[in-house]
Design brief:
Layout (H helix, E strand, L loop, with lengths): L2 E6 L4 H12 L6 E8 L2 E8 L2 H7 L8 E7 L14 E2 L5 E6 L5 H10 L11 H10 L4 H9 L6 E7 L6 E6 L4 E4 L4 E4 L11 E4 L4 E6 L2 E6 L10 E2 L15 H7 L1 H9 L3 E2 L4 E2 L8 H5 L3 E6 L1 H16 L5 E5 H4 L10 E7 L5 H12 L3 E6 L5 H5 L2 E4 L12 H20 L4 H22 L2 H11 L4 E6 L3 H16 L2 E6 L17 E4 L6 H13 L4 E6 L3 H6 L2 E5 L7 H19 L18
Parallel strand pairs: 17-18, 17-19, 19-20, 20-21, 22-23, 22-24, 24-25, 25-26
Antiparallel strand pairs: 1-4, 1-10, 2-3, 2-4, 5-6, 6-7, 7-8, 8-12, 9-10, 9-11, 11-14, 12-13, 15-16
Helix pairs in contact: 4-5, 6-19, 7-13, 7-14, 9-13, 9-16, 13-14, 14-19, 15-19, 16-19
The chain binds 2-deoxy-2-amino glucitol-6-phosphate.
2-deoxy-2-amino glucitol-6-phosphate binds next to helix 9.
Length: about 600
């Protein structure tokens, strides 16, 4: 959570910082601020609210060519101007922005207060500024290194000192930080989206590293002052990918990108000769892969839902026992890490703290963890033993859409690869592969249902509660449909396995509580139809997402959306966009901020 950005170079810093923060706004958006240095003067401007509000109060002619900025997702202290970053030290000469949580801030604060220090905010961050000031003896980098060694918890920080113009020091532990290498200018940010308008040459920092950046260059050292040899990577996407391109918001754009993004996730990964999947980055020999007897998937939120689909598939198609675990739970369960178990950490951002820490715990115990990530160079991608990039392109809207279907594509490819190593025949492999190849076109057809879905959303958007129900592969989709709806429309929604409702949730059914049923023509269709009848018998309205031409489902439902027909194992792809569109149109109907829903942030880097 929180986004930080820094700029030092020949240009005026303020517009670069504000524009960078706008790109990072998905990381948190309750308050924002910048600090800009002009000579020995450090000007801080900050406010509650979104970046647009900050932009409105930053003078167009604000001088200064070096600065830092922050967009906040509040953790310690309410949403107030005083708690917004940047924070200063008592002398006013040091300014600092921080992403993360200082777990021992209270103890440090009390000790400093006992020595007379006065704090102006309720944040954990302000103690870092005070500590740096205490260690400062003319060299900001040295002071930062000394200060961060006293911190427990996580931090990505950018710091400036009034007496060292043009210099920004960044340090990270547990919160991402990237250095951008420009021509005569340098940037520092939580992620590359903030800097891609200026440079595509980036250096990903690791925990325990400190960056010292000036207009003409940078150094990266560890906390013991040893230089760290870093590679300069190149960002492989363009600014256009993070523009709205005519869509009303990023979520809408990202929903409609799915035929292409799924195509990219599959591209070059299907081997026609052997009817199998090809995943180059796993860093495991075929023998090692073949010897895996169990798969455990760790993830959070939407990525966990993709993991649930993956687990169903890996078990039922590749015949490998598989389960998807919530990262925030497995981490503290002292998990048993058996030999021949393959762990998969699934994360769009590659920075989710729950997933990252769970993965570190598994690796510490000797487990092999592969990452399934979207963001190239992200911490999970770099710390895993190998993995798969899903290539959905930058996902900006807080609600994950295209990353979900690209994660599915990765799971289907992995399933094919493992199934063909075990029992799946070449003929069956070809059938699976052909169905997978047909997915992008069929997903494009589901997008043409947009107007029908909008009409249904209009009809039901005023409901207070929703149930989302499905069986087997549709169960994770029911969870995902409910999550999408509550996340962006704030309507209460619960996802259940349709077979589970009779065990309690059916008590919620009433004419005011619509049920969204996912009913593909799979081997459980009849059972799901019975569950629909149970709801109808109790006066509950039913919206059915079924298969085009399925008259039984159409007749039973109050409202019906028909997706194209496909091999029954592939309906998760075809149900995704309709569910996303349903949530999207409900949110529009209720005038919600679709891309930046309340209380949320895209990249959840706190526990
Ligand atoms: C999805 O719409 C969410 N905003 C959220 O659940 C998200 O999927 C979760 O925080 C995990 O993020 P990750 O994929 O970046 O790890």
């Amino acid at each position: 959570m929180c986004g930080i950005v820094g700029y030092t170079g020949p240009r005026r810093a303020a517009p670069v910082l504000v524009e960078g923060l706008k790109r990072l706004e998905y990381r948190g958006y309750d308050s924002a601020g910048i600090a800009v240095q002009s000579g020995s003067d450090l000007k801080v401007i900050k406010t509650v609210g979104k970046i647009a509000r900050l932009k409105a109060i930053v003078p167009a002619d604000l001088p200064g060519t070096c600065g830092i900025g922050h967009t906040r997702w509040a953790t310690h202290g309410g949403v107030t101007d005083a708690n917004a970053h940047p924070h200063r030290d008592p002398t006013g000469k040091i300014v600092l922005v921080h992403n993360g949580i200082v777990e021992n801030y209270k103890g440090i604060k009390e000790k400093l207060q006992a020595k007379g220090a006065v704090f102006l905010s309720e944040t954990d961050t302000e103690v870092i500024a005070h500590l740096i000031a205490r260690y400062y003896e003319g060299d900001l980098e040295k002071a930062v290194k000394a200060a961060v060694q006293r911190l427990e918890g996580t931090y990505g920080i950018a710091v400036m000192h009034a007496d060292e113009p043009g210099r920004i020091v960044g340090a990270r532990k547990g919160s991402p930080l990237v250095v951008g290498v420009g021509e005569g200018e340098m940037l520092l940010a939580s992620d590359v989206t903030a800097m891609v308008a200026h440079t595509k040459r980036v250096v990903y920092m690791n925990d325990g590293e400190v960056a010292d950046i000036r207009p003409d260059g940078f150094t990266i050292t560890d906390l013991d002052d040893r230089p760290v040899d870093k590679r300069i990577d190149s960002v492989d996407w363009d600014l256009g990918e993070i523009e709205k391109e005519g869509f009303s918001c990023y979520m809408e754009k990202e929903i409609f990108e799915q035929p292409e993004s799924i195509g990219r996730a599959l591209s070059g990964r299907l081997d026609a000769e052997f009817a199998t999947g090809k995943l180059g980055g796993l860093n495991l020999t075929p023998q090692q892969l073949h010897s895996m007897q169990r798969i455990k998937i760790i993830a959070a939120g939407t990525s966990w839902h993709a993991g649930l689909v993956g687990a169903y598939l890996l078990e039922s198609v590749a015949r490998i026992p598989a389960a998807a675990e919530l990262a925030s739970e497995i981490r503290y369960r002292n998990p048993v890490v058996e030999p021949n178990t393959l762990f998969l950490a699934v994360s769009q951002s590659g920075e989710t703290a729950d997933t990252l820490y769970a993965m570190r715990e598994v690796r510490r115990k000797g487990g092999t963890v592969l990452g399934i990530c979207n963001v190239v160079g992200s911490t999970i991608a770099r710390e895993s033993d190998g993995g798969v990039y899903v290539h959905s392109g930058p996902e900006i809207a807080v609600a994950s859409t295209k990353a979900f279907t690209s994660q599915l594509a990765a799971f289907y490819t992995l399933t094919l690869l493992l199934a063909r190593m075990h029992d799946m025949s070449p003929t069956e492999g070809r059938r699976f592969m052909e169905a997978l190849r047909s997915v992008p076109d069929k997903v494009a057809r589901t997008l043409t249902l947009r107007d029908q879905i909008q009409a249904i959303a209009k009809k039901y958007a005023k409901a207070r509660d929703f149930l989302f129900l499905g069986r087997n592969l549709m169960y994770p989709l029911a969870l995902e449909g409910a999550l999408k709806l509550k996340e962006i429309s704030y309507i209460h929604a619960e996802g259940y396995g349709a077979g589970e409702i009779k065990h309690g949730p059916i008590a919620l059914v009433s004419p005011e509580t619509p049920s969204v049923f996912l009913v593909p023509d799979d081997f459980l269709r009849e059972k799901t139809l019975s569950n629909m009848k149970e709801i109808k018998a109790r006066g509950g309205p039913v919206i059915a997402f079924g298969v085009e031409g399925d008259e039984d489902v159409r007749e039973l439902a109050d409202d019906f959306i028909g997706v194209p027909k496909i091999d029954e194992r592939f309906y998760p792809f075809l149900m995704s966009a309709p569910l996303q569109l349903f949530a999207y149109f409900c949110a529009l109907e209720l005038n919600r901020d679709v891309d930046q829903p309340r209380n949320l942030a895209k990249s959840v880097t706190v526990e």
